[in-house]
Amino acid sequence: MSANTATGAAAGYRPDRTLRLGVELRRQFKRRRTIGVLVLMAALPLILIGALALGGADEAEANARVNLVDVATASGLNLTLFTLFATAGFFLVVVFALFFGDTVASEASWGSLRYALATPVPRARLLRQKWLAALVMSVGALVLLVVVALVAGGIAYGFGDVQTPVGVALEQRTALVRLVGMVGYLAVHLLVVGTLAFWLSTVTDAPLAAVGGAVFTTVVFAVLEAVEQLGSIRDWFPTAFNFAWTDLLQTPVDSGDLFRGVVQGLAWSALFTALAFRHFARKDVTS
């Protein structure tokens, strides 16, 4: 008697072959929300170029604060850095929360989640494949934003060196390497929001509640970070070191906050992912 027959499984059934990642990715890429997000990510750098073209030099000079917008038109790399700075605080948070928070809850709201499990797909594998698909789409959207900003910015402003707001220039090759590091750091840090939304997606059958809950929680922590009375407690928030990636513009690079931001980001992401798997393993899936 075969092992499969002994356990009651059909002959030839292999749990590790169910719901392959490629299948899940194709399903997700066919959804309107995925296409809409990718189109918006590609269009955003073009919108920023148009906005910078409409704004006159007088308005830019009138701003006494020194920031990345002051040098956004110095090169394509500068535009890319400004695009990341403008979107990292909220826009990219929503994108990661959307891809992760919608993946399980939407299946439950459609009533197709129980049918997927009855295929049969093991619960842990189904959740893992959806987590990986959400990761691929989220990071892919981030990379798309950066690539379009780099190419469109290069065409509009040239492919020169990076000019920092404090007047220090970074050679193009060095700047590209650091840009990769910035994207990697942001991916890890935004994964915290994504995994929080993923956990909430296993708790509720309403995709909007999962996505909105993760975004709202992130905003609350960001507000609390401004409360100085909380002291060093703020350094342990999931949103701590949000903009530590800008330290890569320094020469030499101060890696202290970068390292702590990566470690804490991975730790929070692991916690939220573990909570999602724990809850889904015990969940009574009826929809």
Descriptive account of the structure:
The protein is mainly α and 287 residues long. It has helices at residues 3-6, 21-29, 32-54, 57-62, 76-88, 91-110, 113-117, 123-157, 172-203, 207-224, 256-282; strands spanning 162-163, 169-170. Strands 1-2 form a two-stranded antiparallel sheet. The chain starts with a helix and ends in a 5-residue tail after the last helix. 36% of the residues are buried. Mean pLDDT is 84; it is low at 1-8 and 60-66.
In brief:
With 287 residues, this protein is mainly α. The protein is built from eleven helices and two strands; from the N terminus they run ααααααααββααα.
Largest sheet: 2 strands, antiparallel
Low-confidence stretches: 1-8, 60-66
**Portion in beta strands:** under 5%
Helical residue percent band = 55-70%
Shape: globular
Task: Kindly list the characteristics that best describe this protein.
mainly alpha, 287 residues, disordered N terminus, 2 strands
Q: What topology does this entry show?
A:
Layout: H1 3-6, H2 21-29, H3 32-54, H4 57-62, H5 76-88, H6 91-110, H7 113-117, H8 123-157, E1 162-163, E2 169-170, H9 172-203, H10 207-224, H11 256-282
Antiparallel strand pairs: 1-2
Helix pairs in contact: 2-8, 3-8, 5-8, 6-8, 6-9, 6-10, 8-9, 9-10, 9-11
